[in-house]
Amino acid sequence: MNMDNVKVIPLGGAGEIGKNCTVVTQGDDMVMIDCGLSFPHEEMHGVDIVIPDFSYVVEHKKKLKGIFLTHAHEDHVGALSFLITKVKAPVYGSHFTIEMLKAKLSEKIDISKVDFRVFDSGEKIKAGELTIEPIRITHSIPGNNALAVKTKYGIVLFTGDFKFDFTPVDGKLTDLNRLSELASEGVVCLLSDSTNVEREGWSHSEKSVAEGLKKVFTEALGRILITTFASNIHRMQQAFDMAEATGRKVAIAGRRMEQSVDTCIKLGYMKVSKDTHIRLNELSKYEPHELIILTTGSQGEPLSALVQMSKDEYSRLKINEGDTVLYSARPIPGNESAIWRTVNRLFKFGANVIYDSPTPIHVSGHGHQEELKMMINLVRPFYLAPIHGEPRHQHLYCNIARNMGYPEHRIFTLSNGTPLVITESNATIDLPVSSGEVLVDSSGKLGVSNFVLKDRAALAKDGVISINLAYDTKKNCFVGGIEISSKGFSGNSQLLKQFASVLEDYITTHKDLKSKQNHDKQAMINDFSSQWLYKKNRYKPVVITSVMHLS
Ligand SMILES: [Zn+2]
Ligand SMILES: [Zn+2]
User: Fold this and answer.
1) pTM here?
2) Do residues 371 and 397 lie in contact, with contact meaning Cβ atoms separated by under 8 Å?
């Protein structure tokens, strides 16, 4: 393999929505684009977050010239704390991205050792032989950029998360001019967001949410609680604006959200009048119809303020009859049941919950079909590869490219770990590098294995059965009775009695057992028990056998 080839290797985010992370290599240089996390699906018991397997990067860490971030959403920056202690490379991002990141990272690691570098859109940053240029593009967060990586064979362009919003809340427009200039400089490959490829037409502007908010603000007679992501600065700004226009005050419930609002006000990314912004302990000074409360918990996160309120466990604020709760966030797939449980509990307390409305109370930050096509037309890439999408999104995106006249050999469906190799004359998919997902549990410990997950699933479903026996090595036989105890096992005591007697028969008749080592005895009894319980009633408890050897 020619060392000079350019390789684009997704380590996350290809064939999924989440944990976006791709490296681009050329000779001795490597840059990383984004370093995000994803959230576990429902079968991952006790897993809090999922991050990419960074072993490829750590193995080649000498080559790593920089980590470049498109924007501050968790699916683009959330895994950085796990990588940055293992590699030495500067972390580049917009002013907003870096400030938000610093606030978050400082809770986990000593950030004085991290080499943060703020870039401006349009700046050209050298990373060995590669040059990276951030280009301003609209999404649902300030300081968002597409990243153009200039290689010897042309520009590899990462759109990052984008939509073409012509009336963004902060008035900062996409640099369409620069994007079209890239076309004449030569975009060899476009790695495009494909999240909303199933939706026809154009996405709604962030500003259109103002209409929906206005309707709720004028119709609600009591307090209004709005739940959204702590990172959705634009939505929170809109809530403040609307509060000011309708004479309400805004308080914030949720530490992360309060922190992010305070940081944004300090840095000038949010404009809020001092009179409007109040603290939670001042709520009692005002009438219900004078109040807005912004809160975390839109995804049903167990420790968030809204979820605690829904269980009457949040001491600083109780849900009252007549409150309106507005969900201004799209559910992340996998969180639906937790969200519905919260919504139902809120209704039980007498709140009116609005999670869907004919006038939008939430818009997506990802462009629809026409915007994805517009991007292709603007930058006219030679090769195309959709990322930030599940296989069905990638499939649809490829169809769109075909309909736009792209021949098969110029369209690639990438998956995590498989390099796209670009040479002077062609592009091909290479053999996979080591990649995968690392599960992180609530203690922040890395690497919950599949074994552990299987046990947790079995424990959750059928509980645990423990079997205790004693074996006399002098007399060469089991002595005493069999002690069986269970926790969370769904079979009744009758069944356990029957099981005990079957097991008794097994250990007395199964002569083989006697000659075995202790741990083999335990394993055989485990296997026998699991099989019998499964045959009996499809039970799959975790079985723990312990045989004590007496001599
Ligand atoms: Zn995003
Ligand atoms: Zn994203």
Assistant:
1) 0.82
2) no
